[in-house]
Amino acid sequence: MLVDQIIHGINEGGIAPFYFLYGPESFYRVEIIQALNQKLITPDNRDFNLENFEARESSVGDWIGAAKTLSFLGGTKLIIVRNLNETTLEDSDQKTLLEYIADPGLDSCLVITADKADQKRKLYKKLTTQQGALSCEAPKEAGLLPWLKDRARSFGYELSLEAARKMVDRVGAKPGILAKELEKVMTYAGKENKITESMVGELVGEMKMENAFLLTEALKEKKAEKALLLLQNQLGQGEDPIKILGLIAWQFRTLWEVKHYQGQKYGVQKIAKQMGAKPFLVEKALQYTKNFNQSKLREGMKCLFEADRELKTSGRDPQGILEALLLRICSG
Q: Which residues share a beta bridge with 110?
């Protein structure tokens, strides 16, 4: 896919001074803008090097002015103009924009997006012929199979052709949803390298497993009310309390390990090596480690052991045991 080629080029430092991302598939636009953000923007330079505009609420002068203004901290500025199709530019503004695109500043990257681009109109006809123009169309299903396999491989997982085909069969030609489902399957696979058709069959499009993953996300975000509601839904659908606890314990244990190595100032790759895990899992966990200190994680592991023992031996109501566990994890 051309999108992957552009993202690869961005990651390698081959950033164009202008991109026009147009078409109905918003996932591709988001992917490219995220890649540019990750390459160009840091917490230190964000306030100086990143500017966002809604086309209908701003002017061409605003966009070009931002692109021509040098960053106080140096580096390449990223200027994003969204939804060009929601406004109509005056002829003079069209001329100004096209003149800039013909000779753009090398210290800026201007990105313009549009859900639709009527190529019968002069402006769009010229924008779509630029070197940085990309049509973001929903792909044909056949093209999604190698895309899914390549995407899994980029995270260190081997997705079988049968597994990829089952994902597309269940989800359809929807790259954004497919990417989220693949992330769910990779999380489930954990330290295993291979994603099989049976894994996909168990997880993709399965509401029980979807709720289970949402439950663990709510816990890691310390959103007790949301976690309790998802737990109630899980149990109401007949899910095994021991299975729910097992998924929580696995996610929490991963969080604890990552937090431990993070405290030793290890980077993502070194943490993954120490754990025997994929960098993808480490990066996911690092999004939540700030919500827990080491003592809270130790306490959480103790609570998990106690809940496991009570579920197996006490005869108490499983829902009450799990609800108490969730509240203790989310407290503090």
A: 18, 79
Same structural domain, 21 and 43: yes
Residue 138's φ and ψ, nearest 5 degrees, are -65, 130
Same domain for 126 and 16, yes or no, is: yes
**Long-range contacts formed by 25-30: CB under 8 A, 24+ apart:** 25/136, 25/137, 25/138, 25/139, 25/175, 25/176, 26/115, 26/136, 26/176, 27/136, 27/175, 27/176, 27/179, 28/3, 28/134, 28/136, 28/175, 29/113, 29/136, 30/176
The domain tally of the chain equals: 3
Between CA 328 and CA 230 the distance in angstroms is 16
Tell me which of 205, 223, 251 is where a domain ends.
205
Q: What does the alpha-carbon distance between residue 276 and residue 192 come to, in Å, rounded to a whole number?
A: 10
What would the pLDDT profile of 218-248 be if each residue is shown by its tens digit?
999 999 999 999 898 888 878 889 989 988 9
- In order, the DSSP letters of 163-220 are HHHHHHHHH-S-HHHHHHHHHHHHHHHTT-SEE-HHHHHHHTT-HHHHHHHHHHHHHH
Q: Residue 24 belongs to what domain range?
A: 2-135
pLDDT, tens digit, 9 for 90 and up, residues 105-158: 889 999 999 998 888 889 999 999 998 899 988 777 778 888 899 899 988 899
Contact between 281 and 220 under an 8 Å Cβ cutoff? The reply is no
Compute the half-sphere exposure of residue 252: CA atoms within 13 Å on the CB side of its CA: 28
* Cβ(159)–Cβ(182) below 8 Å: yes
Q: Classify 54 as helix, strand or coil.
A: strand
Structure tokens at 195: 């994603």
Q: What is the pTM of this model?
A: 0.65
Four-CA torsion 201, 203, 204, 210, nearest 10 degrees: 160
